[in-house]
Amino acid sequence: MQGEINGLKTLIINDTPSAYCIHCFAHQLQLTLVAVAKKHYEAEQFFDILANVLNVVEGSFKRREMLRDDQAEKLEELLVLGEVHTGSDLNQELGLQKAGDIQWGSHFKTVRNFISLFSSVAHVLGVLAIEGSNYHERSMAKSLVDDIRSYDFVYMLHLMLKVLALTYDLNMALPKKRSRYCKCNEACWF
């Protein structure tokens, strides 16, 4: 196995001498990327806000239900307008999950789902900011809704989606034996 990886690394370096190769099985590349990004203040702040939002929104059954209900309303509106179609494997329910250190694609999936559910998440936080059970809960929700609506957060959200999508595609291509080099090479080009 080690020889195959060294062979791939050699092919990449021969093709692109300026390439920096990292051996990555499963989640190592994405975890490394996230760990390096967290050394940058804005990226660390982005991941902290994202984790706090996930903790608040997914923190209780009532909030998860509120998120599901808002999603269902929006989907119903889109169906009436003809913006989405029904069928097998279409319009699947999305959920928010914390990006764990075990699931190698989880950072990408968390960011992707967060973007898809952005308006529903903002709605749940807005309701909590008004109807929270105590001052701390209302204050936290208000702060988080302001944070996720800021330009910096939205910019980082989309930037991280693009970067994590590249590493996700690369991670999907690396474990396959056939035409590994070609797939990795294609995944690296913008």
TrEMBL record:
<keyword id="KW-0812">Transmembrane</keyword>
<keyword id="KW-0472">Membrane</keyword>
<feature type="transmembrane region" description="Helical">
    <location>
        <begin position="114"/>
        <end position="133"/>
    </location>
</feature>
<protein>
    <submittedName>
        <fullName>Uncharacterized protein LOC104236168</fullName>
    </submittedName>
</protein>
<keyword id="KW-1133">Transmembrane helix</keyword>
<dbReference type="InterPro" id="IPR055298">
    <property type="entry name" value="AtLOH3-like"/>
</dbReference>
<feature type="transmembrane region" description="Helical">
    <location>
        <begin position="153"/>
        <end position="170"/>
    </location>
</feature>
